[in-house]
Structures are given as structure tokens and as C-alpha cells.
Amino acid sequence: MIFPARHLCILPQDVEFRQIQCKNPSSCEISDKVESKVRIFTSKLTFKSCEQINSDDIPLAYRVTTADGCRYLIGRDHRPFPVLTRSELMPSSHTDSSLITYTVTWSDVIKPLQIIE
């Protein structure tokens, strides 16, 4: 990766992302706090999908595209890696959603990087 400015990155051409079909809208929340005189950013991405996502094999980074087309990278190629948790609901009603809710949390000294091309 190339970091041309603070909170910006340029990804290599050969990096591949798996497209995840998710129900809109998804949400991404970024908060920060100071611990031991160091600012820590915590990102929380929440989305619903019918896909089974397995993050046990390799660490993942998530590329998020906003409604206005901006792209952000949650995670990097080294620790700390984002943590993926899932919540499955087996509804009692046929009208309730049975989509899997995924939550990605990532804490680091940087906030998600805006991807520029």
C-alpha cells in the first residue's frame, strides 16, 4: 500500500476483494478515545447478508463503499486485524428476516483509510 497523505491509501493493482451481497442499508460507526495518551479509533461495520462468510482461514480487511461512492479500508495487512462476528436468527414468523447479521470491529491507532485510485 502507498500512503500519500494522512488517512489516505492507494491499494496495489493486484489486490482482490470478494464482493459480499448485503441488504441495504448497512452501517459503519467510527469512534475514538484516548488511552495512555494514545488515540485509539474503533470502527464498527454492521451488515446483513444471506452469504456464509468464513474468516477462520486468513485475516480479512474490508473495503466499504459509501452511498456517494467513496471507498474505505477497514483493516490492514498486519495486526490488529478486524474481528468478524455473526448473529443468526431463526424467526418464529415467516415475515421476519432470517438474514445473518455480521459485525466487523476494528481498533487501531488509525481510522479507516480512504482509498484513492
How would you describe this structure to a colleague?
This protein has strands at residues 8-9, 23-35, 38-49, 62-65, 71-74, 83-87, 100-108, 113-115. The chain is mainly beta and 117 residues long. The strands form two sheets. The chain has a four-stranded mixed beta sheet with strand order 1-8-5-4, with no helix packed on it. The chain has a four-stranded antiparallel beta sheet with strand order 2-3-7-6, with no helix packed on it.
Task: Give unreliable regions as ranges.
Answer: none
Percentage of residues in helical conformation: under 10%
Number of strands: 8
Would you tell me the overall average pLDDT? Answer: 85
Rounded to an integer, what's the Rg over CA atoms?
16 Å
Shape: globular
Strand percentage lies at 35-45%
**What quaternary form is this?**
single chain
Major pleated sheet: 4 strands, mixed
Terminal-residue CA separation: 12 Å
Order of helices and strands: EEEEEEEE
Secondary-structure content class: mainly beta
* Helix run count: 0
Strand order of the largest sheet: 1-8-5-4
Short description:
The chain has 117 residues and is mainly β. The protein has no helices and eight strands. It is 0% helix and 44% strand.
